[in-house]
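Person: At home tonight, work slowly through the protein below, taking as long as you need, and write a paragraph about the fold.
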Amino acid sequence: MSHAATVRGPSFMARLVEQRDITPLPPGTAVCLGAFDGLHRGHQALIDRARHSAPHVGLVTFDPHPQQVLAPERAPKLLQTAVQRRRVCEALGIEHLVLLPFDRDVADMSAEQFARQVLVDGLRPSTVVVGEDFRFGRGREGDGERLRSLLAPAGIDVWRVPAVPVPEGAREPGTDPEFKLGATAVRRAVQAGHVERAGAMLGRWHAVAGTVVHGAKRGRTIGFPTANIHAPDGFLPAPGVYAGVLVVWSDGGAPGDEADADFGRAWPAVANLGRNPTFEPGGIPLRLEVHVLDRDLGERLYGRQVELSFVARLRDELRFDGPQALVDQIRRDVEAARVVLTPDALARAIVPPTP
């Protein structure tokens, strides 16, 4: 019996308009301004403020991320791909996503130039929402108060949103009392395999997007068929075995066929991120293999776009004495996954909007 869910993400889906220029937004649009790596709960507080400020909500961010231009040697790998950012924006009710091309010329703009060219003369929002630590302009010379003074003559309101407290369950025991909610904290949690803590900060599960590719097909021979996900741009957690949720994002066939039925569903799963030491003792590149519970999605997944959400870390990857010992452990992993993959857990994975 299948236990897939058909949830619509943590909020609701909006039809998103994406633009890469500074042409005016629809009248009555409140925009959130920032880098927005991860779109975590702190960012969501800005979006909530914008939603209460104007009929329409937009997100204004930079592409590439400013650090990738200003300090590429220190720039972190982003928590999301561009495709994932768009999906989360839709789930959070964003109607307009403005991607400002970021280069040295933009970095050298003064605070006044940025406010005038991008906001007052360009996008023309009714309201701008920023975090309390927001900085902009050459050398980070401007802050929220400076932005307010620059936009007030044009009748554009500015809201500064206080930092969001660290959510319950997100703080790692023994961490600095000054620990703050932010993209850096989410990265650290994911890299350590603490995906539950990352999920508490994100307000949804951390996920990676990729394509299903052919593997050794060894899982099928032992009764646990797996989908091998190629996710070169994904921000992967620490190697190990995880309870997760697999969502199929690309339609695989004509309406009504089996492949079409897989699309847009949130499938409970067990994922192994590792090097398969039981069968490959010499070591192989890191692989992400996913077994969907109670349903064999079969070969119709090959070549399709999927996203895997990491719900809970079950254990380290281990080397077993033989296939039977591995099978016995996988059975235990499946039962452990069932405990944490509740309907509420499935509902925190984002799925495609209804056509």
Q: What stands out?
A: Residues 5-12 have pLDDT under 50 and may be disordered.
